[in-house]
Design the sequence.
């Protein structure tokens, strides 16, 4: 129907019957400012594995300005701000190995009140201006003895260092540790715990 009308309007020119572009007359323009581009880029550098929704929350918290996930996605696509593929594959392999070797549940352990029978270890994140710090804490279930130390990151190396210092502090064998599934309590932390303790975590 429309082609026939177009054919008549074109005075029966056969070329008018060819399919025409269906693109909108007014295309969506690039609506991201240079400042927003810079801010999104910096956030992406700090959190390369975060999705656009998490980046949106961080962006609005840091800059007190609303931004759409569409704008964040456009910036990521335009400048190809994707995480390193090798690192992504390495992280995937680590998670797969962790699933193959699940940790024992603390519910299987009968808690005793003896000193240093069970230490509960956790990580607290604090923000001060533009700084972020991680505080590793350990509390003895029996005596309620507490120990804490601050680190610049929450890597497994930091957690292993904390574990060695805790062992030096109590100067006695520790039988069990209770941790959550945080990434800091894997790899180097697990190797350190195997050296120092007999763990049910």
Sequence:
């Amino acid at each position: 129907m429309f082609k026939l009308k177009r054919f008549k309007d074109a005075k029966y020119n056969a070329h008018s019957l060819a399919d025409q572009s269906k693109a909108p007359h007014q295309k969506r323009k690039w609506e991201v400012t240079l400042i927003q581009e810079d801010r999104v880029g910096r956030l992406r550098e700090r959190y390369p594995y975060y999705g656009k929704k998490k980046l949106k929350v961080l962006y609005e918290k840091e800059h007190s300005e609303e931004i759409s996930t569409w704008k964040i996605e456009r910036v990521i696509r335009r400048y190809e701000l994707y995480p390193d593929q090798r690192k992504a594959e390495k992280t995937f392999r680590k998670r797969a190995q962790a699933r193959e070797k699940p940790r024992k549940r603390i519910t299987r352990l009968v808690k005793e009140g003896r000193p240093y029978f069970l230490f509960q270890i956790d990580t607290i994140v604090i923000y001060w201006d533009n700084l972020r710090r991680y505080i590793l804490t350990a509390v003895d279930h029996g005596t309620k003895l507490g120990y804490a130390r601050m680190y610049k990151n929450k890597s497994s190396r930091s957690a292993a260092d904390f574990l060695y210092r805790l062992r030096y502090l109590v100067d006695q064998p520790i039988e069990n540790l209770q941790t959550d599934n945080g990434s800091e309590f894997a790899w180097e932390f697990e190797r350190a715990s195997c050296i120092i303790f007999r763990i049910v975590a």
Notes: Residues 85-100 form the longest helix (16 residues).
